[in-house]
Specification:
- This protein has one domain: Maf protein (Alpha-Beta Complex), CATH 3.90.950.10.
- It has 6 helices and 7 strands, in the order βαβαββαββαβαα.
- The relative contact order is 0.19.
- The protein has 191 residues and is an alpha/beta fold.
- The protein is elongated and about 55 Å long.
- It starts with 5 loop residues before the first strand and ends in a 6-residue tail after the last helix.
- Strands 1, 2, 3, 4, 5, 6 and 7 form a 7-stranded mixed beta sheet that branches.
- It is 31% helix and 24% strand.
- Helix 3 packs across helix 4.
- Keywords: Cytoplasm, Hydrolase, Nucleotide metabolism.
Length: 191
């Protein structure tokens, strides 16, 4: 019997690299184009799971499973944006400087029959107190572009993080422990 087919509902090269760590190569890529704005009063955890679910539902697939994910950075009840400009990234880094924040990484797996399974990883991250020069040096790197909370843990920002509790891969964009469990339960050949 042939293993199930997998469509990744993301154009993120980081997610493709992470899924490869599980020994899987997606059979296709189908980024979902959805409205990613939080609903009025929506909290970070429900927002992350809703985004992953909606991406899994919106992605095109024939008889394949669809894997979608969403990563949300939150300070308290506040959802930080994806940094599309340097000012936004600078504001996010200044807000997180010297304090803890949460990274919620939700995944959803849509089966060919339309049923959806979901998992959520929560990681606590604390940046060291950041000096203005450190923030500016990071801004100049450009790594923040398009990243939730304005940073990429897999790059230079890792040297600014005092500690992390939880899933490093979840902060990068795909929590491998939860993803492995979800795919294994759907019959994917993962050792």
């Amino acid at each position: 019997m042939a293993p199930p087919r997998l469509i990744l509902a993301s154009a993120s090269p980081r997610r493709r690299d992470l899924i490869a760590r599980l020994g899987l190569e997606p059979d296709g890529i189908s980024p979902a184009d959805i409205d990613e704005n939080p609903l009025k009063g929506e909290l970070p955890r429900p927002y992350a799971t809703r985004m992953a679910r909606e991406k899994a539902q919106a992605a095109t697939s024939d008889d394949a499973h669809v894997l979608a994910g969403d990563t949300v950075v939150a300070v308290g009840r506040r959802i930080l944006p994806k940094a599309e400009d340097a000012d936004t990234a600078r504001e996010c880094l200044a807000l997180m400087s010297g304090r803890r924040h949460r990274v919620l990484s939700a995944i959803a797996l849509r089966a060919p029959d339309g049923t959806i399974r979901e998992r959520l990883s929560e990681t606590i991250v604390r940046f060291k107190p950041l000096h203005a020069e450190e923030i500016e040096a990071y801004i100049e790197s450009g790594e923040w572009e398009g990243k939730a909370g304005g940073y990429a843990i897999q790059g230079r920002a890792e040297g600014l993080i005092a500690w992390i509790e939880g899933s490093h891969s979840g902060v990068v964009g795909l929590p491998l422990f939860e993803t492995r469990a979800l795919l294994k339960s759907a019959g994917f050949p993962i050792g």
